[in-house]
Amino acid sequence: MDITFVIEKFILVAIIFGISLVIAMYSTYAERKVAAFLQDRLGPDRAGPAGMFQPLADGLKMFMKEEIIPTHSNKWLFMVGPGLAMLTACIGTAVIPWGSAITVGGRVIPLQVTDINVGVLYIFGVVSLSVYGVMIGGWASNNKYSLLSAIRAASQNISYEVAMGLSIIALLLVTNTLSLKEIVEGQHGWHWNVLYQPLGFILFIVCAFAETNRAPFDLPECETELIGGYHTEYSSMKLGFYLFAEYINMFVSSAVMSTLYFGGYNYPGMDWVLLHVGPVIGPLIGTAVLFAKIFAFIFFFMWVRWTIPRFRYDQLMHLGWKVLMPLAIANVIITGIVIAIVEKF
After folding, report:
1. Known catalysed reaction(s) (predicted)?
2. I need a surface site. Which of 24, 143, 195, 301 has the fewest CB within 10 A?
3. What is the mean pLDDT of the chain?
4. DSSP label at residue 73
C-alpha cells in the first residue's frame, strides 16, 4: 500500500474531524445568538468580544463538572451510550465529497475520504445506527423519563426513515447512481437535483429534522415532559458528547442535503474559475461554496427551532405515516412515469 496515500487520508480525516468539532462547538454559540436575534435579545456577550469565547467556556465547564454515574444504572452501557452517539455522528462524513480533487506536485488528491459506490446506502446505515446511542443511554440510566425518551426516539426514527428512504429512491431514479461523488458531478452548473425533485427535497428535509431530533420533532428531549429526555442522568463530558453529537448530526445532515439536492461543491462559472485560479485554489473555492450551503441549512435548522412549536406525539406519528409516506410513494411513482415517458420519446 502506498504510504503517501495513507498519510493523505489520515490528514483528511483529521481535518474533517476537527472541522466537525469546531462547527458543533460554535453551533451552540450560533444557536443562542439566532435565538436572541429572533427574540430581540443580545445573547452571549460576556466571554470575549461579542461572546465569541462562550463555547470555550461551556466546554471547560463540561470538563470541570463532576462525573456522576447513577447507583442502579448499567454502568458499562451508561458509558457506551454517549460514545456511540458521538461515533455514529462523526462517521457519516466519510463519504461526503467536500470538493473536487486538488493537484499538488503532480499528485491528484481527492477531497473525499472514500468514494464507495453505495455511498447513499452508507449514509442511511449510519442514520439507522445513530438511534442506538440514544436507546442505550436512555435504557442504561434506569430512569423512567430517560426510558420514555429512548422509546420515543426509536419509534420516531423508524417512522421517518421510511419516508426519507422513499424520497431518496425518487432521487436515485433521476441520478441513476448511489455514489455521492457521481451525484454531485451530475449537478454541474445549475443542474441541481432540487429543480427536478422539489417534493423529494421537502420530504427529505422534514425527515432530517425528525432524524436529528430537532424542533419541532424534539419529542425525545422534551424538557417540559421528560426533564431533558435520554440524557437526564448524564453530567460532565458524557452529557457534552450527547449535545455535540446532536450538532454534528445537524452539520452532517446539512452536508448531505447540500450534496444530494443543491449541487454540493458545484457553482455557476466553476469551470472558468478552475481554469484561471489553478488546481489548488479552484477546488478549495468549491469547498468554501459547499460550506456556505451547509451554514445556510444550519441557520434554517436554528430558525425553525425558535419559530415553530413542538408537535404532540400523535401529530408526529400522523405526519410521518399518513402524510409523508403517501406523498413519498406518490413522488416515486410520478418520477418513474415521467422518466419512462422521457426515455420513450
Report:
1. a quinone + NADH + 5 H(+)(in) = a quinol + NAD(+) + 4 H(+)(out)
2. 195
3. 90
4. S
Provide the residue count of the chain. 345
CB–CB of 92/120 below 8 Å? Answer: no
pLDDT of residue 81: 92
Identify the CA nearest to 260 among candidates 160, 184, 335, 169.
Answer: 184
Average pLDDT of span 126-153: 89
Residue 76 amino acid letter: W
How many Å apart are CA 125 and CA 161, to the nearest integer?
11
**Residue 1 pLDDT more than 70?**
no
Cα–Cα dist 340/337, whole Å: 5
Residue 20 Cα distances to 25, 62, 92, 178, 203, angstroms? 8, 18, 11, 24, 25
Q: Which three cell numbers stand for residue 311?
A: 408537535
Q: Where are the domains of the chain?
A: 68-344
The number of helix segments (H) and strand segments (E) in the chain equals 13, 2
Distance of CA 183 to CAs 87, 90, 119, 264, Å? 26, 22, 10, 9
Please report, for residues 92, 185, 226, 257, the alpha-carbon distance to residue 287 in angstroms, rounded to integers and kept in the order given.
17, 14, 40, 15
The grid cell for 323 is 402524510
User: pTM score, two decimals?
Assistant: 0.93
pLDDT tens digits for range 218-251: 888 777 676 778 888 998 889 989 989 999 999 9
